[in-house]
Design a protein that fits this description.
Layout lengths: L1 E6 L14 E6 L8 E6 L11 E3 L6 H14 L5 H12 L7 E3 L4 E3 L12 E3 L2 H4 L2 H4 L16 H13 L2 E7 L2 H13 L6 E6 L13 E5 L4 E2 L4 H12 L6 E6 L7 H17 L12 E6 L3 H7 L4 E2 L12 E2 L6 E2 L2 E5 L15 E3 L4 E3 L21 E3 L4 E3 L4 E3 L4 E3 L30 H7 L1
Parallel strand pairs: 8-9, 8-12, 9-10, 12-13, 15-16
Antiparallel strand pairs: 1-2, 2-3, 3-4, 5-6, 5-7, 10-11, 13-17, 14-17, 18-19, 20-21, 22-23
Helix pairs in contact: 5-6
Amino acid sequence: RTRFTLWQVEEGGFNRVVLCPTLLFEKVGKGGETGRRFYACSACRDRKDCSFFQWEDDKVSEARLLARETENQSKRPVFSQQEYWTRFRKFASLPLDEKKFCLNCQILLLPGEHAAHSSHRCTAITTAQLRKPSALLCPLDNKKKNAQYLFTERSSHFLLDTLAGQGYRKVLCVGTPRLQELIKLRNLEQKHEPMKTLLLDIDFRYAQFYSQDEFCHYNMFNHHFFGGEVGVKTLHFHSFLRECDGEKVVMVADPPFGGLVKPLANTFSLISQTWRKLQSSDSSKADMPMMWIFPYFFEPRILECLPSLSMLDYQVDYDNHPLYKHGKTGRKQSPVRLFTNICPGDVVLPREEGYRFCSVCRRYVSGLNKHCAKCNVCPSKDGREWKHCSTCEKCVKPSWKHCQTCGRCALPDHPCGQGQGKEGCFTCGSLKHKHKACPLKDSHRMSR
């Protein structure tokens, strides 16, 4: 079993040649006794995608370091950010019949490169397509590495309308390329107040379409800027976070749902700290406004790491995901929600989609999320109407029933005796401790 215990960025010493700084994990044995710690890739959860592995106390030979450097070089982008931008400007000035995109290599082709890609699937590119690279590029859907799902028009417009209505003029897009596109397209219309945007994304293919002040190749699991231009990218990043002339900044992050919550929360905290240092003294104790998009069942972990956030009822949906659809268009309602430190009452959810304002909770909730007078809250997390259990003294899902054996509400066919009783731990069944103190809780979650 493997347990994540802490994380850190390793850029010096024996780990100096790692392309992407690592996370520090710990292997634990039965009973949760102290195990051996090791470094592994922070972005890939499958060793097939990234084979890097190193025990914390290992001494690495020069030959192994050179082998790693060779491996790292083979995985770096062909061009630098500046070279990509130079290519884009040349590409944009070409006649329409010379603008080609290689679907196999996922790259914009200049005239002298057409022959080398003659056996590949190539397609003509219009100006409109250049402005929507997320529709042009094939989504990376490796669930253990990229999980690149893209917002629908509905969710993109809702996010942008909400942020614009709150007066934000700079949007830091962390893993949200479609939101960045919509902002740039709306700016071209010149019908709204212009907004600035900076995309931080691990998919380096977007470097083909944006300049250095619009895109940074970035790993959100450890706040790492890739490439040899880290200083330049950090400069653009800091410049973007600085609020000048009343340009309020907000961050919108859409991480892979398989990612660990603690490293993500740590990254977002670091971004918030950087933002705070760049502002006036009035903001010395404030948190950077943010929206973290994640499934609702991660709420306890997210609030444990960032207690200033609260979960909204709005369902975020995706074009290229079979399940995460809003309402009745998918097999299930989307479980993806917005976690934000913006006042929930200020985020107006669309009434035409069934959302309503709860005068007691002072926030917008889904139509079936009925206020419970006993709990004094609108309790539903999944969009269904929940029911109150007098024995448990809380509201539960409508499909759950109270089990006298387990002393809690659960599904009717749940295995009795393995639940969360008042006397023991529902992770390992021990009567000597509660779940929060269980040495197996993290390893249980990882193995599951």
